[in-house]
Specification:
- It contains ten helices and eleven strands.
- By secondary structure, it is an alpha/beta fold.
- It folds into two domains: 120 residues, Periplasmic binding protein-like II (D-Maltodextrin-Binding Protein, domain 2), CATH 3.40.190.10; 116 residues, Periplasmic binding protein-like II (D-Maltodextrin-Binding Protein, domain 2, 3-Layer(aba) Sandwich), CATH 3.40.190.10.
- Strand 6, helix 4 and strand 7 form a beta-alpha-beta unit.
- The longest helix is centred in the N-terminal third of the chain and has 15 residues.
Length: 281
């Protein structure tokens, strides 16, 4: 790890995690590395509300791609993507992408997404790309509406959706492939309880973003520090615990795939995004 001294008299850099809590330890390591390289204290907090990004109370954040593009549409220039993870599995093809894995219980008779007609479904949150918007987009591509499912619930988090499927409370759900992979790595029994019957995507993976109050110099140095994180054993171990091979620089254009799907779904919803009962996941 970098041995640069941290100046405790300088205002801390505040990172916020708006993604799954099973990645908190990884993101804490990222925040710590950036603080060390910049010689500034850094702290990671839980993202509670997107107003933390609007009012600048957060400097950098780990943010789902869907709220990222929505916030950019709401206020251009408010957020700046710095870097994105490249996941360590062949299907990601060394690119900053991920999938929405559709899961059922191991003993389910469903073998494909089409087999879920008339079954119950758990979204995690309306602000989630992998857990909600991609499913709505897929249904529309099939010529279907959410009436395809017999019942829909909102769990609030990917991990809760996983547990609802495991317990048989719902028949299926769509899970961020990184979140699902980490959960199965930490709990091998989970992989024996579930099956993936479809993979939606790939989509550009959630970025690390900076808010507009962060100077361009700090943005550039933070991006360099994040992308260098896997350059030593400690950094590699921290990333591996989140199934991350490395981070790579990313720009706003990389999220045009999400913009296109968002516009397609929102336009068929009367030009408005769906109601949001909870925070993103």
């Amino acid at each position: 790890m970098c041995n640069t001294a941290v100046n405790s008299s300088v205002k801390p850099l505040v990172f916020a995690n708006f993604l799954a809590p099973n990645m908190t330890s990884v993101y804490a390591a990222v925040a710590a590395r950036v603080g060390q390289v910049l010689g500034r204290p850094a702290e990671l907090i839980e993202g509670r509300d997107f107003d933390q990004l609007r009012d600048g109370s957060v400097d950098l954040a780990f943010l789902c791609g869907l709220p990222y593009v929505r916030l950019c549409q709401e206020r251009p220039g408010m957020l700046h993507p710095l870097a994105a993870p490249v996941l360590d599995e062949p299907r990601y093809q060394d690119r900053p992408v991920y999938f929405s894995d559709v899961i059922v219980r191991r003993d389910s008779l469903a073998g494909s997404f089409g087999d879920l007609r008339g079954r119950s479904w758990a979204y995690n949150d309306p602000d989630s790309l992998s857990g909600c918007l991609l499913v709505r987009y897929h249904l529309l591509q099939m010529g279907e509406t959410e009436a395809f499912f017999s019942r829909i619930t909102f769990s609030g988090r990917h991990q809760e959706s996983i547990q609802q499927v495991v317990k048989g409370e719902v028949d299926a759900s769509a899970i961020d492939s990184q979140v699902l992979g980490v959960e199965c790595m930490r709990n091998p029994n989970l992989a024996r309880q579930l099956r993936v019957i479809a993979a939606l995507g790939p989509s550009t993976i959630p970025p690390v973003i900076a808010t507009e109050r962060v100077s361009q110099e700090i943005q550039a140095r933070a991006c360099d520090a994040i992308c260098a994180l896997g350059g030593d054993g400690v950094g590699r171990d921290a990333l591996a615990s989140g199934l991350i091979r490395r981070f790579t620089p990313i720009d706003d254009r990389a999220y045009d795939d999400i913009r296109q799907k968002m516009a397609f779904v929102d336009n068929l919803n009367g030009g408005r995004p769906p109601a949001r009962p909870a925070l993103a996941g």
